[in-house]
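Dear support,

Our group has been running a series of protein-ligand predictions, and this particular one with phosphoenolpyruvate is the one our PI (initials K.S.) wants archived with full inputs and outputs. We had some confusion internally about which version of the output was final, so please treat the block below as the authoritative record. The input we submitted was:
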Amino acid sequence: MSDFQKDNVALMCDIGELVGIFDFEQGFDSFLQRAVSMVAWHMRAAVCSLYLYKPATRELVLRANQGLNPQLIGTLRLKIGEGITGMALKEMRPICEARATDNPNFKYIPGSHEENFVSFLAVPIIRRMNPVGVIVVQDPQWNYFTPNDIQALQVIASQLAGVIENADLLSELRQKEQQDSPAPVFHGEQEFGPGTHCVRGVGASDVMGMGLSTRIGQYLTLDQEAATCPLDLTEDDFDRALLATERQLLDLQRRLEDKIHDAASMIFGAHVLMLKDEAFSGEIRNQIRGGKNPWTAIVEEVRRYSRLFAHSPNPALREKVLDVEDLGHRLLQNLSAQSMASTNPDYSGQIVIAEELLPSDILKISAEGAAGLILLGGGQHSHVAILAKAMQIPLVIATDRRLLSLPEKTPLLLDAKEGQIIVRPGPEAIQTMQNIIRSLADSLRLAELAQPETRTQDGAEVHLFANMNLVSELDVALRVHAQGIGLYRTEFPFIVRSSFPTEEEQFVVYSRVLERMQGAPVVFRTLDVGGDKVLSYFHAAPESNPFLGLRALRFSLKNPLIFKQQLRALLRAAHDYPQARIMFPMVASLDEFLEARALVEVCHRELQREGIPSRIPELGMMIELPSAVTMINELAAAADFLSIGSNDLIQYLLAVDRTNTRMAPWFAPHHPAVIRALHCIVKTARQHNKVISLCGTLGADPRLMPFLLGIGLRHFSLDPLEIPAVQRRIAQINAAQAEQQAQHMLTLGRIGDVADYLRQINPPD
Ligand code: PEP
Ligand code: MG
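Confirmed final output from the archive:
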């Protein structure tokens, strides 16, 4: 057996080292070779081989190896299902053999010298559920590889998958280069005139920002003089800029991993790989040697890649446009910083303007210290907005396209609470904003005054829990005395990464959350991807209406491989922490809930068979679909607890897209259909003696709190920063009186009548 037992911390270190490989390696093949050496060393294995899958021939080709005959590299080919290696890819699962020859699929490779190696472990490398390759370790000792080793190699395989994909995409790109598409036509936007302008949008994150405007990749549109860059630059200047950019990216990656270790894995991987790619940086250097100015050479090369990415039929490549533009922006900033030490190489102090962003971009921008974000599209309830709020980045979503043609470094004020953007603010506006920022800081201090207990004016106890998207939010949740985590959106660590987290990685993150919550309950909602939550690395069939498509529990049940990995990680964490709970999102029928529960039981039995400690915790479900409201009696009987997802419930009940800003007036929580549905859910759950909570944004709406308490809701899960204000609002409400008010509201048939009544019973704004 292995004398080198890996624990979780060691696993994470392995990954760190793999990331570090980017630091000094040049070509892809030598990267793969270093990877196998490192894996062999870490696993104390005599042999490590890496095969890549070639879709054109449906074969695995040996691309890197340590310990076997090196002449096999590039020549040894296996069909899918051929040998243990081919079988691991065919069945997309690790295969571990104490004695390889016992496996009927074992195939001896003549001339390989592998007859000395008895133990065999093959782990498929999978990306977006597509085969990428297989990594194999072998050793002369019998039964050498442990379950820990299997998990370690799975972690490594998942990390490699991302790197390999990026490298493959680049080579695909180069092949396509001949069919270069025409340059995009620039549609001149109207521009803001001189002076101050106020642009209305929708605030998405309740914080304020001040800074200078920048568009992602904006440096690419500037000429050298406008960017105050010296004109007499040389190849040495370019090399220095390259080195500085690389150092910044690795530093960013490290900082990001410290801050949000659950989500940050390899987020700047594509940037670094691109920078290392000879066909990119080497080409720029060639151009410089041929007499081109470094600035122009960078701009031209970045534009060429960006154009190719943008016009690629491959969605994964199209997503890289932002990465390559960001990289170009950085290189140019560093180039002009050669003689101007003051220039800032990241987004600190800047307000980033973009047409569209992925959730992972929000992480990058936040890691680069941006003062705010303006998005020309998307909705307040979209998940990009939820993430911005979680990261406390001021975000305003606006539709005024003149923002796109603002000159670089235009002063901006961003009020993400009111949804206002002030372009070139005067001294008064700046003063006002500074006051608001100060009073917000005061209100944060007020948050410290939150009480551990919440009661209505007449003494009814109410339980306030925190919603959580990333582990970094735990501190705030603890600061405001949240009684636990009522909704952990576990999909965020999935969304913002570049590859699927493994069972082991998930187990580490979930255990850490439970540990930090010191015995308080934590409700882990299983993956809710689909809709506006896209996994960039998972190839999903295009849907014309994703919110009505393969989302949430439907997605998980359709992808049992992914779902089971998550459930296994949760059951393992639940074993060590009794306060863990599991909740399924978007349950549409009793059948779906039962199917999910059965899968939990399968995972539990599997883990027991493998001798891995696990426990089935309480299983709950979200009530957020009209069908669930209709079936509430059966659902409440089956589940251990329920939670209302008002964001989706309103969206689906009223057929109003939660991500569409223009539809905001129709997104009416006080619509009689909504309040009657809420009443029906709460009443039925209570009849079944099941805990019912509300975890959508509605819980933070002070106008509706009398109604929510009046129908008997006593559990809420909120954005942690909302907790102090909600606690104060609850303390003003008399529960007995609220019950009467709620009864009256339920008799009203018009939206306007409910709105009037809410104005009557609530204090003026
Ligand atoms: C909801 O729908 O109200 C909810 C809490 O879940 P999410 O916002 O993640 O869809
Ligand atoms: Mg929801």
